[in-house]
Amino acid sequence: MRLSILTIHPGYFDGVLREGLINKAIQKQFVQIQIVDIRQYAPDKHKRVDDQPYGGGPGMVLKVEPIVQCLRAIRSPQEKTRVVVLAAKGKKFTQKMSARFSRVDHLILICGRYEGIDERVSQFYADEEIRIGDYVLMGGEAAASVVLEATVRHLPGVLGNPDSLIEESFSAGAEREHEQYTRPPSFEGHLVPEVLLRGNHADIQRWRKRRKS
């Protein structure tokens, strides 16, 4: 799978790609991640990517031209591609979406900034808009990191135990996972539930099912 992130702050992702399972997925070639600087596709010599909104209003808007030129440069007609704009007015991102995104050949995430992106990007050049929650961020980079991590973990081989995808929150209609405990069985008088210590797997599964309901 290829995953491209279009941004005016490419350095934001340095740590994201250098740590944890994302880095391992890159090293093992489960995913190719490309951070694309939108400014490199600005048509003027000053590499300007924003302008004042038509009709007035505060702030600046990311221009349509650099983003479209960027998309044309990185897309391949041979790939099944999904172009997603990260915007506060988009559909809320879900576990189901992350699984769907993981099945495309090339996922492209476009990070908004300032007051947003020229609406023509979403209308004519992207497939959908999403948001990660009901709040406003300073830009789409944090949201792109969330979508990146939620999507990549679906790829075969990324998780050490693939059963983790089956039993975790939001994957099988569950609103939350059951509680987890580990050693020591007693800490400052706080005990691990006895059922987990007895080793009866049928009892443990019944207990976990009750805790998730």
How would the blueprint of this fold be written?
Layout: E1 2-7, H1 14-18, H2 20-27, E2 32-37, E3 50-51, E4 61-62, H3 64-74, E5 81-92, H4 95-101, E6 106-111, H5 119-124, E7 128-131, H6 141-152, H7 164-167, E8 186-187, E9 190-191, H8 194-198, H9 201-212
Parallel strand pairs: 1-2, 1-6, 5-6, 5-7
Antiparallel strand pairs: 3-4, 8-9
Helix pairs in contact: 4-6
The topology string of helices and strands comes to: EHHEEEHEHEHEHHEEHH
Average pLDDT across residues?
92
Poorly predicted runs are none
N-C termini distance: 35 Å
Number of strands: 9
What's the multimeric state? single chain
Beta content comes to 15-25%
Structural class: alpha/beta
Number of helices: 9
Outline = elongated
Task: Characterize the main sheet.
Answer: 5 strands, parallel
* Radius of gyration based on Cα positions: 21 Å
Arrangement of strands in the largest sheet: 2-1-6-5-7
The helical percent reads 25-40%
